[in-house]
Write a structure and sequence with these properties.
Elements lengths: L44 E11 L2 E13 L4 E3 L17 E6 L2 E14 L2 E9 L131 E8 L15 H19 L15 H4 L15 E8 L8 E7 L8 E9 L5 E10 L8 E8 L8 E7 L3 E10 L2 E7 L3 E2 L6
Antiparallel strand pairs: 1-2, 1-7, 2-3, 4-5, 4-7, 5-6, 8-9, 9-10, 10-11, 12-13, 13-14, 14-15, 14-16
């Protein structure tokens, strides 16, 4: 029997460990029972894509699209893995860390999930990364008194063990306690950080980082079977009703202004790994980019204009002057050009990705995506060239780079692409290794409306 997920106990709430194998237990145990993690059970790692419109960190609308779940042996489809009915990757209160080029952007807490045109997506709240608040220095009190100093010194009154009085620093006797004097007591339910607690909170695994509300109990129309496991996930079909979490504004379709970021959920805290590549010679980056742009223009059918013919008319005066250098030819522009350079593993060298398209109506557009690396002699080596056009997007979708991400938790980055067709789309992970590109994983896809670009 596969294990459901446990609640996270440390920095963020994520997936629990699930035992390998799909065989059901022979006993008559309730199928929703949550068991504890074994020592040899792998920790799940989920990869998703957050899509939003509006300001980064404060989106107008957003959704999280699950991509894959690594179970310790293989990459599983995040939109299908342990769907009961919703997949484990979009279960309520699962928390993702948003990343851009390997650097954290914030946290995304799932509130609820639903289906949009055949695919599961999640809605939630984008929160900033927690930062350690420096503690205020403790006040130092002057216990002594300098008779030769004219500077006034203030002394704090020392309280006795009973708290009702005590001798002052100057040795005066304590004032008599007033039985009618009101006494203020700090509420025991108030924590040091100012957040009010609940005396009825008894779940030791409840995350406290974001002070999220407790998971509501199952609705009356949901079968419970008398089972009272506090760790049992509460599953709701589609968008939640009024008794459940609030449905946040959803992002529909694929608007042109939509932005994307990688989202990672892992029960283990792993060191930050950025994917920036630093060139030994900054001119090498310009050289590589120009070489890739030339290949992209050729793939898109953008021919350079012929050089202007030199005038044959000469005069005696012009023969004595040196000829002017030819005017540099104007290269045809690349529309929607994106160029990124990654170091996908420590010391692995540069991996470059360039994508562009032609202008015009969608049906007449052509798209190209290139993945390349420098060879041993400093020349550009193309590892993958993907070309398609607007009339054949369902047969050969457009490759749109999302970012690099460590999907297998092995300190090596994979390239995450969105494969966008005319009426559907998928996500795919590509690994660049030893001068080649291999597709590691591809989702099942889903129907999405394509907005005109």
């Amino acid at each position: 029997m596969p294990h459901p997920f446990q609640k996270r106990q440390r920095r963020r709430r994520t997936f629990c460990a699930i035992a390998l194998g799909a065989a059901l237990a022979a006993s008559a145990q309730y199928p929703g029972t949550v068991t504890k993690k074994a020592k040899d059970t792998p920790v799940l790692r989920a990869i998703a894509v957050l899509e939003w419109t509006g300001q980064e960190g404060k989106p107008n609308s957003s959704r999280l699209v699950p991509v894959t779940v690594f179970d310790g042996q293989a990459l599983q489809d995040g939109g299908l893995y342990l769907a009961r009915p919703q997949p484990l990757a979009v279960t309520s209160e699962v928390e993702y860390q948003l990343e851009k080029n390997g650097k954290p952007l914030g946290l995304f807490d799932i509130r609820n999930a639903g289906q949009e045109q055949g695919s599961w997506v999640a809605y939630g709240t984008w929160k900033p990364m927690p930062s350690a608040v420096p503690k205020a220095p403790k006040p130092t009190l002057d216990e002594g008194f300098d008779d030769n100093s004219d500077r006034p010194t203030l002394h704090r009154k020392k309280s006795s063990s009973s708290g009702s009085g005590g001798a002052t620093d100057s040795g005066t006797p304590p004032a008599p306690s007033d039985p009618d004097r009101p006494t203020l007591h700090k509420s025991p339910s108030t924590s040091d950080d100012g957040a009010s607690g609940s005396g009825s909170e008894t779940d030791p695994d409840r995350p406290t980082l974001h002070n999220k509300a407790a998971v509501p109990p199952p609705a009356q129309n949901e079968p419970s079977g008398g089972y009272t496991d506090p760790d049992r996930p509460v599953l709701k079909r589609g968008k939640s009703s009024g008794s459940g979490p609030e449905v946040l504004p959803s992002l529909m379709g694929l608007p042109p202004e939509m932005q994307q970021a990688v989202a990672v959920s892992d029960a283990r805290t792993r060191p930050e790994h950025t994917w920036n590549y630093t060139w030994a010679n900054p001119d090498d980056e310009s050289k590589m980019k120009e070489a890739m742009e030339a290949i992209a223009r050729e793939a898109l059918g953008l021919k350079s204009p012929p050089p202007a013919a030199a005038s044959k008319r000469t005069t005696a005066k012009s023969r004595t002057k040196p000829a002017l250098p030819p005017r540099p030819e104007e290269l045809p522009p690349l529309t929607d050009e994106h160029f990124r350079v990654f170091e996908l593993a420590y010391g692995s060298g540069a991996t470059m990705v360039l994508s562009a398209r032609t202008d015009g109506p969608l049906a007449d557009q052509k798209f190209v995506t290139l993945i390349a690396q420098p060879d041993l002699y400093g020349n550009m080596l193309v590892l993958l060239k993907h070309v398609t056009d607007g009339a054949h997007l369902d047969d050969s979708p457009r490759m749109r780079l999302v970012d690099a991400v460590d999907a297998l938790a092995d300190n090596r980055g994979e390239l995450l692409f969105e494969l966008r067709g005319a009426s559907q789309r998928q996500f795919a992970l590509y690994r660049v290794l030893r001068g080649s590109v291999d597709k590691l994983f591809e989702t099942g896809g889903g129907q999405y409306g394509v907005s005109p670009e």
